[in-house]
Design goal:
mainly alpha, 5 helices, two-stranded parallel ribbon, 2 strands
């Protein structure tokens, strides 16, 4: 739509809608490749079909455990480079552009392992023969993920039974499916606290990248004539552990 209106359209970051992006080379997924091995021309070809230029990856590999922590910096760097090499020159030529920047976090909270180190309660390994696991993990060993909010109130409905009369059956089915991939953790406040802390720290990490991009718009003197639209998943509405935030 934006391209039809005359905008130069570019896309950066996570793309979650095309199997071709996940396997741009026959028989080999992006999860098995180093970033330098991912064929950029092939990605360009795929994304052009959706109306976007200048896509350098890396598809949905960044949607796995710690995907935001590992790769949001890559997306941020690509965005800043694009603004310098393409966005600013287009502006100088009075040509409008639209850039979609798709960071992962706070999605990493989906993969939280609420067990303490050495404990195996939530995660005991794959629960099915096909190994449909998403590998829950501990928060990163990084200072930005060490912050805790012990006085922040936990959700009042956290202990509500999934099979309570009147509650949609889909809630329980969702949790059963999620448990196959990430394990099922007991309804304990210490685990809710760990989940909440990780969620907030994922947001703080994300904010660093957003700030870098916004600062670059300022540095390039593009802020005054750029419309910035924030979108995101509707997390925070249901308080179901852990991907339904």
């Amino acid at each position: 739509m934006m391209r039809e209106l005359g905008y130069y359209t570019a896309y950066k970051g996570k793309w979650h809608l095309t199997r071709e992006i996940d396997q741009p080379v026959a028989g080999k997924s992006v999860e098995e490749m180093d970033l330098g091995e991912i064929p950029t021309p092939r990605l360009h070809e795929i994304m052009e079909k959706y109306g976007f230029s200048d896509y350098h990856g890396i598809g949905d590999v960044i949607g796995k455990s710690k995907g935001g922590y590992f790769f949001d910096s890559v997306t941020t760097g690509q965005t800043i480079s694009w603004l310098r090499n393409t966005g600013r020159p287009l502006n100088d030529e009075n040509k409008p552009w639209f850039a979609a920047v798709n960071l992962v976090n706070p999605h990493d909270v989906m993969f939280i392992n609420t067990d303490e180190h050495g404990e195996q309660v939530q995660w005991k390994g794959p629960m099915d023969k096909e190994n449909h696991t998403l590998l829950p993990t501990q928060p990163p060993h990084n200072q930005i993920y060490q912050q805790s909010w012990p006085d922040y109130p936990l959700p009042a409905n956290r202990h509500q039974p999934l099979d309570e009369p009147g509650r949609p059956a889909a809630h329980k089915e969702y949790q059963n499916a999620r448990a196959v991939m990430e394990g099922q953790f007991p309804d304990e406040d210490r685990r809710w606290r760990k989940l909440l802390d990780y969620y907030f720290n994922c947001i703080r990490d994300n904010d660093q990248h957003l700030e870098a991009i916004l600062n670059e718009l300022d540095n390039l003197q593009l802020t005054q004539n750029t419309i910035i639209v924030f979108t995101g998943r509707p997390w925070g509405a249901r308080w179901l552990p852990p991907d339904a935030w």
